[in-house]
Write the structure tokens for this entry.
Amino acid sequence: MIITQKYNSVNQIDPEFIPSIEELLSDTIPHFETLKNIEKNSPDDLQFIYYLFFGESTNAPIGFARLELKNEKLIKQGFIKRVLKKDPIKEYYQKSVRWQIPGRLKEGIVFNPRYLNHASEKALAVLEEIFKREDILSQEITFSQTYQKIFEYSQSKTTHSLYVPDCLIKTHNSYADFFQSIDHEIQGEIKNCWKTIAHELKIGEYKRLKSAFEYKTKGKEQYKTLKETLAKKYYALDNDQACFLTLENDQEVQLLIIYLAGHHHNAFYDIAYIHEDVNPILIHQLALMQFYQAPAQRLHFMGEGEDERLYELGFTQREQLSLSLNKGQQ
């Protein structure tokens, strides 16, 4: 038997559950603070629901789901209707629901694999419970192909499959060994990029964001702009496990990568800033060099796009299913 616990804010979740949630989401986000940062910086017309799933024999969550509710259409209720329905609310918004956990995968639900066969009924019950609300218009959910059986009843609805980059698994002892394993054409492109910038830029590594911009002519201006932008990102800049990788000169930072050590041998990276003159393939090289010096075994790119580039570098592919439901279809 699976039971659920519902929260309307990530800040309501009991601290004792956080380690188990971080384990469930270890290949999706770097740390639990990710969820808090996104909720804190979300627009006013966005609400959230979080579900924790529990088994009978454990007090630790064995599943997690996150829902975003967005205002779509304003409904005004007349006096007579309010009296008949015994509802004092004069107006409310109809909402669309997107099941989505932050991160590149954008999947809405995750379970401990050991409990997957028992999760189907409860996951469907949550979806149907949401549709019972009068203010809900539609639901969208993307999920791993592994969870296909959970939503089999909806295969006649608007469902489509997609393939996305997942992660790079460490299969070599060093970055040099990894580099020799990739396609020779890609090797040549990377080598030419390094040759182009060799006399202009150098690699930097910093534990604090501010340190990356010190002693640079344009550093103060760059730091102010980037700090404001990155404050709205879903990772915490003051995380002890974060480092900042750069391509830079004495005047400015031309490429800034945020690299984050996550949980259970996972690591993450994202583009904080890239100058138009820097070839994007170098983004990944800085992160890969760091990855092969660190104990992590799986590397995840948090940025958008770059799918083909990631596959060229050996990232695995993940099959997903995306399901769209409108009121009355469930």
In short: The first strand starts at residue 3 and ends at 7. The chain has a mean pLDDT of 88.
